[in-house]
């Protein structure tokens, strides 16, 4: 049987050079000005069906049973680690919204700039700029956020290709550039 410390270490495994381990990642995640950019939990497949309707979850790729459990476990561990979150911003896609709600760490708000641009990359630059602007506003207010979105959005913002449920710790730097400060593995 795994101990809580063992599970937490697995959950918070760091993938950034120069930082020693899970406790360091937790300390980084607690810092003011650090936001948690998260890929939605496990939703088998790639993209969405051709008939996808954003208003109808039945037409989308959704969280699996494992994905629903994964999202809840991640939220529990964030709470247990004392990572206080003020708001959870989410893509309108059902798999992202369900992930955000199952985290249970803060009120959830839909943020269209977090919507997937997998099928149409023409809005990528504008959505990324809007995400950086919102993060700047959160910093100015002293608020910490979890942003639940999609692989393409996270990669566009950070260069990181995250696993389902992975969290990239980010800080807004000069000119709205995002710095990757650590990674929390799912």
UniProtKB/TrEMBL annotation:
<feature type="signal peptide">
    <location>
        <begin position="1"/>
        <end position="22"/>
    </location>
</feature>
<dbReference type="InterPro" id="IPR013078">
    <property type="entry name" value="His_Pase_superF_clade-1"/>
</dbReference>
<protein>
    <recommendedName>
        <fullName>Histidine phosphatase superfamily (Branch 1)</fullName>
    </recommendedName>
</protein>
<dbReference type="Pfam" id="PF00300">
    <property type="entry name" value="His_Phos_1"/>
</dbReference>
<dbReference type="InterPro" id="IPR029033">
    <property type="entry name" value="His_PPase_superfam"/>
</dbReference>
<keyword id="KW-0732">Signal</keyword>
């Amino acid at each position: 049987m795994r101990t809580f410390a063992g599970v937490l270490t697995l959950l918070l495994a760091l993938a950034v050079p120069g930082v020693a381990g899970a406790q360091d990642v937790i300390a980084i995640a607690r810092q003011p000005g650090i936001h948690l950019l998260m890929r939605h939990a496990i939703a088998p497949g790639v993209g969405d069906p051709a008939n996808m309707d954003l208003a109808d979850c039945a037409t989308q790729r959704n969280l699996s049973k494992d994905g629903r459990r994964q999202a809840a476990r991640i939220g529990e561990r964030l709470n247990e680690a004392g990572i206080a979150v003020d708001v959870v911003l989410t893509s309108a896609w059902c798999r992202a919204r369900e992930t955000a709600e199952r985290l249970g760490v803060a009120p959830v708000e839909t943020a269209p700039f977090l919507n997937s641009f997998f099928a149409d990359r023409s809005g990528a630059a504008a959505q990324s700029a809007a995400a950086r602007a919102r993060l700047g506003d959160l910093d100015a207010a002293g608020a910490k956020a979890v942003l639940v979105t999609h692989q393409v959005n996270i990669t566009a913002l950070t260069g990181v290709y995250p696993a389902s449920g992975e969290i990239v710790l980010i800080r807004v730097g000069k000119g709205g550039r995002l710095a990757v400060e650590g990674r929390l593995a799912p």
